[in-house]
């Protein structure tokens, strides 16, 4: 139930989509590709942000235990025992979150939350991000990277994207770590809505296990390439 005074913006999760995911089937050995039909012909770049977003907001995922997830769902914001004093990681890739949480079956990650935040907040975080590993063309040298990461309020880590069955793909998925210097803004200013998508996660997992991966694929959130200002893209090692 939505808390009183909570934003009216509603999630457009898979079962309410106006379109469907366009993906090749893993049964044919192809890794799968998300997004609009015109994206089917292109190969994903190594570093791209793929996400469910609209003109003002973007969906990120986190997985928690019941003690954190259920109050957050009820209050439509993170409340104690969620900690503002430690780094929290947000991920826009649904399938990467499924791999990380083992489809909401990993201890302490039994509840998957889809958090819709403002694009302004998302891009503000990315504009402050430092990569967790030095990358040529982003930093002058190792010392420059070390100095920046020691002072970073936001970290970005690129990990292999995952298929429906958890296989690693050659292109990367972004994780964004928000430190205690900025996490309060995530909680109090950027968050628009929180949805507990765990029942949908369980449904998809059961479809996969029962041999209906095609139906599970058709019910995934629609993720598209997120457009970034050039300065932010360069900071993340994308260009």
List keywords for this structure.
9 strands; 3-stranded antiparallel sheet; alpha+beta
N→C terminal distance:
43 Å
Assess the beta-strand content as a share of residues. 15-25%
Q: Which structural class is indicated by helix and strand composition?
A: alpha+beta
The total domain count is 1
| Arithmetic mean pLDDT | 85
The H/E string reads EEHEHEHEHEEHEHHEH
What does this structure look like?
With 239 residues, the chain is of the alpha+beta class. It has one domain. Helices cover 28% and strands 22% of the residues. It contains 8 helices and 9 strands. It has helices spanning 66-75, 94-101, 119-127, 142-150, 183-190, 198-209, 213-218, 230-235, and strands at 50-51, 57-64, 88-90, 111-118, 129-131, 154-162, 168-178, 191-196, 224-225. The strands form 3 sheets. A 4-stranded mixed sheet has the order 3-7-6-5. A 3-stranded antiparallel sheet has the order 2-4-8. A two-stranded antiparallel sheet has the order 1-9. α3 (119-127) runs antiparallel to α5. The N and C termini lie far apart (43 Å).
């Amino acid at each position: 139930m939505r808390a009183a005074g909570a934003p009216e913006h509603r999630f457009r999760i898979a079962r309410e989509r106006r379109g469907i995911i366009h993906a090749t089937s893993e049964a044919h050995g192809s890794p799968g590709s998300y997004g609009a039909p015109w994206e089917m012909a292109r190969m994903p770049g190594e570093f791209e942000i793929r996400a469910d977003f609209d003109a003002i907001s973007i969906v990120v995922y986190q997985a928690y235990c019941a003690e954190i997830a259920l109050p957050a769902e009820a209050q439509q914001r993170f409340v104690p025992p969620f900690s503002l004093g430690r780094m929290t990681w947000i991920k826009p890739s649904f399938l990467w979150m499924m791999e990380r949480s083992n489809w909401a079956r990993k201890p302490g990650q039994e509840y998957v939350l889809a958090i819709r935040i403002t694009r302004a907040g998302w891009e503000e975080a990315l504009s402050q991000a430092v990569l967790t590993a030095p990358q040529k063309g982003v930093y002058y040298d190792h010392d420059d990277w070390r100095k920046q990461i020691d002072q970073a309020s936001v970290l970005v880590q690129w990990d292999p994207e995952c298929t429906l069955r958890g296989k690693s793909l050659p292109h990367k998925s972004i994780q964004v770590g928000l430190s205690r210097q900025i996490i309060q803004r995530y909680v109090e200013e950027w968050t628009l809505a929180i949805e507990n998508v765990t029942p949908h996660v369980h449904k998809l997992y059961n479809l996969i296990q029962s041999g209906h991966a095609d139906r599970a694929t058709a019910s995934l959130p629609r993720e598209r390439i997120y457009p970034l200002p050039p300065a932010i893209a360069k900071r993340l090692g994308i260009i």
